[in-house]
Amino acid sequence: MAWRKAVLALALALVAGVALWWTLAPTWRHRAGTLAPALVMPLLGGGNIDLARLRGRPVLIDFWAPDCAPCVAELPELERLARADAGRFTLIGVAMSYSDPDALRAIAARAGISYPLVWDRDGRVAAAFGGARVTPTQVLIGGDGRIQARVEGGLAGPLLRQVLRHDGVNDAQR
Q1: How many Å apart are CA 116 and CA 136, to the nearest integer?
Q2: Could you state, in order of their start, the residue ranges of all structural domains in the chain?
Q3: Which residues neighbour 111 within 8 Å (Cβ) at sequence distance 6 or greater?
Q4: What gap in Å lies between CA 34 and CA 99, rounded to an integer?
Q5: What pLDDT, in 10s, does the model give residues 121-141?
Q6: What is the largest CA-CA distance in the chain?
Q7: Alpha carbon distance 13, 31 (integer Å)
Q8: InterPro entries, alphabetically (predicted)?
């Protein structure tokens, strides 16, 4: 009888450990200080953007979806930030694989988005960054190509500006 309880406890501990690893492992690999993946990403309007070619300047990647109300609400603030700090960093919007490309174009046009938009058609971009389990998710990459911050659930405009100021945008330009 005691051995059954021990086996059951061991099995439960093993299942819990696997579940924890499955949940957290991608995020651990893509935490602050790790090198960002070198990706060539397909732009929604055609062409590509090469993340490796942007080294030397900070990059903010915004994972979003057109059916995510907080994502859509943040688009105008992100656009204002991109215009106000043009030349100091690059903002790239990455739409999730389940997004309808026509809806993406319509929302981007309504919001007046001028920064590059990627449609992550096959989920490869999100996977390279450890997955984007929540939208919006922002990843800040420093000029040295290392991830400086990853925030799931989005940031309000003033907080986003503060993160950019303190996580390398000013330092990268010095």
Answers
A1: 16
A2: 1-30, 32-172
A3: 72, 75, 76, 79
A4: 28
A5: 999 999 999 888 889 998 888
A6: 69
A7: 26
A8: Redoxin, Thioredoxin-like_sf, Thioredoxin_domain, Thioredoxin_ResA/DsbE_sf
3-state helix, strand, coil in the chain (%, to 5): 45, 20, 35
Is CATH 3.40.30.10 the classification given to domain 32-172? yes
20's torsion region: left (phi>0), alpha (psi -120 to 50) or beta? alpha
Does residue 71 sit in helix, strand or coil? helix
In the chain, which ranges are E strands? 40-42, 48-50, 59-64, 90-95, 117-119, 137-141, 147-152
Considering the chain, what is the average pLDDT of its residues?
A: 79
Under a CB-based contact definition with an 8 Å cutoff, are residues 64 and 154 in contact?
no
